[in-house]
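Take a record:
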Amino acid sequence: MLVEASRSETAQQAEAPEYDLRQIDSNPNFWYPVAWAHKVRPGKAFPTRYAGHPIALIRPEKGPVYALEDRCAHRQVPLSKGLVEGDCIKCCYHGWAFDRAGKCVTVPYLNRSDVGRPVRAYPCREKAGLIFIFPGDPALAETVQVPDIAQVGNPEYKTRQFGPRLKCHYTFMHENLMDMNHQFLHRRQMGSITARFLGQDKGDNFLEARYSFARKGGNQPLAEALIFGKHHDLEGREQPVEEVVSIRTTYPYQTLKIHDKDGDLIMDLWACYVPLGSDQQGTQAFGLLSVKKPKWGFLLDLAWPALGLFTHRIFEEDREIVELEQKAWRELGGDHNVEVFPIVKALRALLARGGVPNKAARPLKKG
């Protein structure tokens, strides 16, 4: 038994992050959403950011959207304030024009194309109502798949978007959703429920945890009942598994899927937590939530506002708690979390493997 315990402890230490997890930057060699597609209008430019990098998204009147560094090579003013003409954008200051590859095609007052420096161009794709960029090595962009997103485009589902900005490191968001043991936080919204861990799957770049929930008290929320059906009061008896909730981090994305007792997918959530700031201590979340339409689709339409309000209230409780975690990290000067749930330990290791320690990253003390 002592030998087995020692091996288990050694395995956990091998999985643990070598650096403070909140100082491990998001790996740029993936596709990240940086804007909702409807916000980038034809003939216009749109400013956005990835980490500490300003990005200008440009949608010509004809042709696909493209992404450039949002700084003119001349005086460093934002290109997103410029004028879109044809397939190019002209800086608002002196009219230097840049094409979709970032090349300066003209300096108008010299009428030459060989004097202006280029700006960085980012590989750019539009999918599922989102605009993605590849902020890392552009040579890798064609080898990395743009992710599949919830049930966008599937007529059997109704989908809503959400995109909050949070004052916390992106890793807090992964931990919050993966760890369903925090339902006590949501007791005012959901009543008294307990998560039951059903199992896990994991690999080099993913981790999935499965749960069911048992109601211990309080009424089932109306929005939940409209989507999943009424859960009857069993008068103190253990509630059977009626839905299975599967939460999966496939670096750097996260999903939550709910299957009913017959195995049918009834809810599909996709989220990506895009880092903000040079220290990445802020996050812009992009998420899409797809809900299976019932036989009478108008019932879901009627319930949609209630569902939106319900999910918003849940998220606001999560927002407050992860921002408090970030505040504690700053005040304590580092990560002092005492984690005991094996799933979250494995998730932290996955995020550490996938990410890139920044210049300020401090090695963690062992033991």
Notes: The radius of gyration is 23 Å. The domain at 35-143 is CATH 2.102.10.10 (Rieske Iron-sulfur Protein).
